[in-house]
């Protein structure tokens, strides 16, 4: 069981994403100790110094650059190491490179003795999460990926703009791969307890253009990367949200990526489905009543992820 008092978090890989995660956590007040690790030790040191100098403006937190050894007693290890997408590259294109890096670093972290949680962020996040589970042998509730928590926020952002309702009041999930085959669950999109189309009718606003929203959510990463070269702010807050739910034992439902074992006829891979997140980690994914075409799309997404898993030497 995750100790509620263990507020030490390690971030492995402090490039654009890892450094933003560290910043989001440093200012969150959730963490007592933050250790930053990178093969580029000067980069980790620089980021740690820069963040530590915020001491007078944030709640007490010890921030330092460390080694893999320093991660071993962390309550959560957030794994952000590896190459990011270049313009035009898919997340699955990163597989061989980032799998090799993961395979090299996980044994150094030497999991097993404690009750820490390993949260994978690097892409392709679903395949790397599956690989991390196999390499570490840890139970599936303690190894999961940030999955489509970010994509679900993008979905809610789009619906919020159309409907004129705060994203926090919108329930809507993206499931499956964090990537090209992800699935927007239109059948489970609700505002104020009311299905989306009905809500639009009652509010006197036109129905949502599903194709447009689907493309905007699915292609968001590519659109940002083509403009600024990387994405990191929104994902870092998605990661912070996941950590918050763990540390505060919230039982929040989040679309994190984890092992799928028979649900919707899918097994043998990791992908995102809504699941309860608390101090134990990830609960079993919820079997929600999806529309027939959504289930089909989820199975297609799983097929793509399983084919990717078959390309690595686990
Ligand atoms: P980046 O190139 O800016 O940083 C990667 C960092 O990893 C570098 O600092 C590098 O030195 C470090 N690194 C490489 N090998 C390492 C090792 N063995 N141990 C420790 N550190 C190591 O890349 P980025 O933009 O920060 O992206 C990082 C990863 O996050 C990418 O795979 C990217 O695709 C992914 N990402 C995921 C999401 C998501 O929603 N899951 C969103 C954005 C980016």
Summarize the structure in words:
The protein is of the alpha/beta class. The chain folds into 2 domains: 8-145, NAD(P)-binding Rossmann-like Domain (Rossmann fold, 3-Layer(aba) Sandwich); 149-309, Lactate dehydrogenase/glycoside hydrolase, family 4, C-terminal (L-2-Hydroxyisocaproate Dehydrogenase, Chain A, domain 2). It is 41% helix and 18% strand. The strands form 5 sheets. A 6-stranded parallel beta sheet has the order 3-2-1-4-5-6, with helices on both faces. α6 packs antiparallel against α8 (210-218). The protein starts with 7 loop residues before the first strand and ends with a helix. Bound molecules: nicotinamide-adenine-dinucleotide. Nicotinamide-adenine-dinucleotide (NAD) is lined by residues 12-18, 37-40, 43, 80-85, 94, 98, 101, 104-105, 121-123, 125, 146, 150, 178, 230-232, 235.
In short:
This protein is α/β, with parallel strands linked by helices. It has helices at 16-26, 41-52, 68-71, 95-109, 125-136, 149-163, 196-203, 210-218, 220-228, 233-247, 292-310, and strands at residues 8-12, 33-37, 62-65, 76-79, 117-120, 143-145, 170-171, 174-175, 183-184, 190-191, 194-195, 252-254, 257-261, 267-272, 275-278, 281-285. The strands form 5 sheets. The protein has a 6-stranded parallel sheet, with helices on both faces.
Instruction: Give the fraction of residues assigned to helices.
Output: 40-55%
Question: Quick one: CATH class of the largest domain?
Answer: Alpha Beta
CATH architecture annotation of the largest domain: Alpha-Beta Complex
What's the shape?
globular
Count of spatially separate domains: 2
How far apart are the termini? Answer: 28 Å
* Order of strands across the main sheet: 3-2-1-4-5-6
- Briefly note the CATH topology name of the largest domain: L-2-Hydroxyisocaproate Dehydrogenase, Chain A, domain 2
Task: Sketch the topology as an H/E string, one letter per element.
Answer: EHEHEHEHEHEHEEEEEHHHHEEEEEH
Number of helices: 11
């Amino acid at each position: 069981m995750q100790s509620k008092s263990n507020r030490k978090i390690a971030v492995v890989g402090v490039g654009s994403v890892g450094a933003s995660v560290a910043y989001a956590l440093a200012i969150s007040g959730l963490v007592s100790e933050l250790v930053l690790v990178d093969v580029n030790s000067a980069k980790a040191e620089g980021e740690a110094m820069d963040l530590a100098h915020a001491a007078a403006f944030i709640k007490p937190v010890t921030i330092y650059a460390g080694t893999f050894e320093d991660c071993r007693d962390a309550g959560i290890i957030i794994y952000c190491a590896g190459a990011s997408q270049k313009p035009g590259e898919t997340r699955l294109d990163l597989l061989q490179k980032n799998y090799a890096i993961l395979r090299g670093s996980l044994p150094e972290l030497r999991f097993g003795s404690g009750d820490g949680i390993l949260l994978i962020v690097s892409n392709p996040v679903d395949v790397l999460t599956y690989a991390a589970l196999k390499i570490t042998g840890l139970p599936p509730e303690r190894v999961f990926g940030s999955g489509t928590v970010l994509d679900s926020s993008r979905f809610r952002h789009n619906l919020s703009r159309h409907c004129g309702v705060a994203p926090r009041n919108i329930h809507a999930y993206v499931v499956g791969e964090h990537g090209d085959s992800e699935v927007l669950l239109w059948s489970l999109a609700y505002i104020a307890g009311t299905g989306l189309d009905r809500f639009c009718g009652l509010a006197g606003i036109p129905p949502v253009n599903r194709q447009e929203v689907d493309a905007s959510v699915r292609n968001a990463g590519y659109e940002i990367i083509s403009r600024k070269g990387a994405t990191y702010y929104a994902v870092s807050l998605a990661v912070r949200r996941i950590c918050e739910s763990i540390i505060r034992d919230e039982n929040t439902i989040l679309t994190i990526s984890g092992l799928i074992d028979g649900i919707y006829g899918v097994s043998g891979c990791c992908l995102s489905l809504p699941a309860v997140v608390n101090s134990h980690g990830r609960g079993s994914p919820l079997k929600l009543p999806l529309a027939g075409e959504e289930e089909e799309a989820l199975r297609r997404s799983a097929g793509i992820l399983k084919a990717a898993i078959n390309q690595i030497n686990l």
